[in-house]
Each structure stands twice: as C-alpha cells, then as structure tokens.
Amino acid sequence: MAFTTLISADVLAPRLHDPAVAIVDCRFTLDDVAWGEREWANAHIPGAVYAHLDRDLSSAKTGTNGRHPLPDARALASAFGRLGMTAGVQVVAYDQNNGMFASRLWWLLRWLGHDAVAVLDGGIAKWIAERRATKSGKEHRPPATFSGSPRANMVVDANGVASLAGKKGWRLVDARAPERYRGDVEPLDKVAGHIPGAVNHFFQGNLDGHGVFRSPEELRGRLRASIGDVPVDRVVCYCGSGVTACHNLLALEHAGMKGAKLYPGSWSEWSADASRPVEKG
Predict the structure, then answer these.
(1) Nearest-5° angle of CA 174, CA 180, CA 186?
(2) Residue range 49-66: average pLDDT?
(3) What's the topology of domain 6-150?
(4) Of these residues, 26, 237, 239, 246, which one is catalytic?
(5) Which fold has domain 153-270?
(6) 203 burial via Cβ count (<10 Å: 0-12, 13-18, 19+)
(7) Fold matches, 6-150 and 153-270
(8) For residue 166, what pLDDT is reported?
(9) Which residues pair with 235 in a beta bridge?
(10) Domain segments of the chain as ranges
(11) Cys bridge to 230: 119, 123, 167, 171, which one at CB 3.0-4.6 A?
(12) Which residues contact residue 78 at a Cβ distance below 8 angstroms, ignoring those fewer than 6 apart?
C-alpha cells in the first residue's frame, strides 16, 4: 500500500530498514540556511538522507523569479536519483515539526509523477517526543535513476495568475499568516499585501493543538470555508515563495479535495514586478 499524503510515526517505525522506503529529512530555517543539514548530521530518523530547500528543491534566484523558484525538471530528477528515489520506492519526508518544508518535497515528487510520497505527521519533534530512535552522522542511500516528467496541470505561472485574479469560478488562496496577507507587515519581501482577489487560508490552521494535521473531515470544513463552492481544480495556492502553499495543497489532498494547483513563484515573484497590482486589507 502506497502512502500518498501523511504517514504516522507508528506506521513508519517498523519500516525503517525497508530498502523500498526512502526517508528524507527536509529541516530548514530561512534565517540560517545551514541549520537543517547540521541538525540532520547531529540526529535524524535512522536511514534518513537530507534534502536542502535551496540547493535541492529550488532553482537559482534571479531577483524576479521568487525566493524559491521551481527547479528545472531534469535537475530535480537528478537530485531525486542522487537521494535514492526511484519507481517503486515509498518516500517519507519530514521536517522539524509542522511539515511546511516536507510538503515542498511532497509536492515536487508528485509534480514529476511520483505519487508514493507522504509527510511524517508531526515531524521529528513528535518522533523525538515519543522517545523513538535517532542516529547521528551523514547517511546516504545508493543512488538510483529517477524518471519523471512534469504534470503541467499542477502549475499556474504569473501570467496565468494575472488572468485568473478575481475571475468568477476561480480562487487564489494565500497560505501566509493573516498579518502578511493583509499587508500589515512584510518581513521577507519588499512589498506588503496580497494578489488582488486572493483569500487567506493560513497553513498553520491545517494543524491541531498538538501540531499534527486535523482529520480529513475537519480539513474539508475549514478549507471549504476559505475557498467556498469553487471546484477544487480551479483553486490556485500560493504563499511567500511556493513552500507553505504546498502545505495547503497537502491538506486539500488529505481531505480528499484533489486537483488544486500551485503558483510556484508566489508573492516573492509577483511583488518583484512593480507593474503587477497589489491589494491590502
């Protein structure tokens, strides 16, 4: 059985030594980009390899294409192969706690056609809190050949977003914190606000008070409250740089609401062009 959205620690634990399971540590912080890799080397779930958000899961920044641009498909497939991912392998991604970085890997794998990928619910924080085994040092899986091609219907670019903004029957969903969505503050990008017509669904609301994902039923209710009666395949998710938007896409998928799309450049790309409209409030 393939796991395609979330996996629990209880389910993962007996599979740690299964060669058909590839565990990937995605820990990261924006203010110290080397932190996650250091933490992985210090202590990680046994067997886990490390994927770096900037180096492995993003392409080079130009100043106008966002803070975490969508990788080139061939370069991404090469990175996945180097990490030991291939057809028939169940991938499990985790990060420090809420899944915001692990969901980026989850989405990218699915974008290239690999559906057997799940995010560890609660991340390594929950794993350690439950006194489960960890290992130190750098681990590597045998390299493999990863074959896949992009699913074009999963992505909308900036021009596509511009044509859809405010269009009846479509919904743009902003995953950032409410104060950033409103434009009250903007700690990362030069311009504050949101894409005109977008609604706010803060990704942290997908989690309960214990830091794990809400039930599919709860998620459906919350997500519908945000997107209304718009068909899910006409929902486009974005955030600051195409990372936490993947958390909302994971929540939608786990809730059985399939077909939403990602605007990878997100606010950091949109706001880099002064000719694009901005809305506040």
Answers:
(1) 130
(2) 96
(3) Oxidized Rhodanese; domain 1 (3.40.250)
(4) 239
(5) Oxidized Rhodanese; domain 1 (3.40.250)
(6) buried
(7) yes
(8) 81
(9) 171
(10) 6-150, 153-270
(11) 171
(12) 146
